[in-house]
Specification:
Layout (H helix, E strand, L loop, with lengths): L7 H13 L2 H8 L3 H15 L4 E3 L4 E3 L1 H26 L6 E7 L1 H18 L3 E7 L13 E5 L8 E8 L1 E5 L1 H7 L15 E2 L7 E5 L5 E5 L5 E2 L2 H9 L5 E4 H9 L4 E2 L5 E2 L2 E7 L7 H14 L5 E3 L1
Parallel strand pairs: 3-4, 3-5, 8-11
Antiparallel strand pairs: 1-2, 5-15, 6-15, 6-16, 7-12, 7-13, 9-10, 9-14
Length: about 300
């Protein structure tokens, strides 16, 4: 085996190709030409002595040997980066990039401003913010931390539970005056409801009564949206009623543009979590951002800390 070919640069290139499955995407991400990425992979495979990747015109996948080698490379690169970070942090302020993915409406309304404050405190830390409601693969997309709203499936990611996001039913005063205010949950099925098309089961309202009983109310409406900010606009414009997170509409409630409907009956709260790629969790700048966001998000209206 030729150890000269086993440089950390070639390992990093191999790891990103294994995660992204596309040479041109990795070349763009790393700032190389695609020929350099190909050369790194060829030199690494020659040094190791076995094929690590299976290439087709559409996709690059790991061989059996490549899968084992990828797992070992992750551990090696994590230790190398962590050692460098610890040595640097002992002498100077944390620096470098953190890639953060965040549910879109929460990111636009609140998290972006939190990042401004964070960078004012840590000017050498760069933040790459991705706003999406899709459950992306953190490792494959090169993300360090993801802020997720909703229940989580089993995951290999490190979990930092932030709290629960309280929800309530709201409507615009003009709409409620024109249609009449509902007096009991069963009345809700007669109202236009702003339906979230990307939420499973949004054609039903699941409510908790004051005595703890669960109620299921069928609902529907002429408007379906797939973004929290669109739902906020529709509710404020009097297009119907709907369940919403308090942090999304607290200002509209405060200035009277929305009001609570059947306040004794609440939709279930939604878990709010930070997911961290385990290999990135020990890096100082990642820890700083996670701790900062967890503390600041817990202060938002309607967030009940864990």
């Amino acid at each position: 085996m030729d150890n000269a070919g086993l440089s950390f640069d070639r390992m990093r290139t191999f790891v990103r190709v294994a995660e992204r499955g596309n040479l041109s995407m990795v070349a763009k991400e790393l700032g190389f030409g695609q020929s350099t990425v190909t050369r790194h992979l060829n030199e690494l495979e020659e040094a190791v002595g076995v094929p690590l990747l299976s290439r087709t015109t559409r996709r690059v996948t790991l061989t059996e040997e490549g899968s084992r080698y990828y797992a070992n490379c992750l551990q090696i690169l994590r230790l190398v980066e962590q050692a460098a970070e610890e040595a640097r942090d002992a002498r100077q302020a944390p620096a470098g990039a953190v890639r953060l993915s965040c549910t879109a409406a929460l990111g636009v309304m609140h998290v972006t401003r939190m990042i401004f404050d964070f960078q004012d405190r840590h000017p050498d830390i760069r933040i790459d913010l991705n706003l999406t409601d899709e459950r992306i693969d953190l490792v494959r997309e090169g993300v360090d931390v993801a802020l997720r709203l909703g229940p989580l499936a089993d995951s290999s990611m490190k979990l930092h539970a932030v709290g629960e996001s309280q929800r309530l039913l709201v409507g615009a005063p003009a709409y409620l005056s024109a249609r009449g205010r509902p007096e009991r949950p069963a009345d809700l099925s007669r109202y236009e409801t702003i339906v979230m098309s990307n939420v499973v089961g949004s054609n039903q309202l699941l409510l908790s009564s004051p005595d703890g009983a669960s109620l299921v109310i069928p609902v529907g409406g002429r408007l379906r949206v797939d973004h929290g900010l669109a739902a906020r606009e529709a509710l404020a414009a009097g297009r119907g009623i709907g369940p919403t997170h308090l942090w999304l509409v607290h200002d509209l409630l405060d200035d009277g543009r929305l009001e609570v409907v059947l306040g004794d009956y609440r939709p279930s709260p939604v878990p709010l979590s930070l997911l961290i790629v385990p290999e990135r969790a020990a890096i100082a700048r990642v820890r700083l951002l996670v701790d900062f966001l967890a503390a600041e998000i817990a202060k938002l209206p309607g967030i009940r800390p864990s």
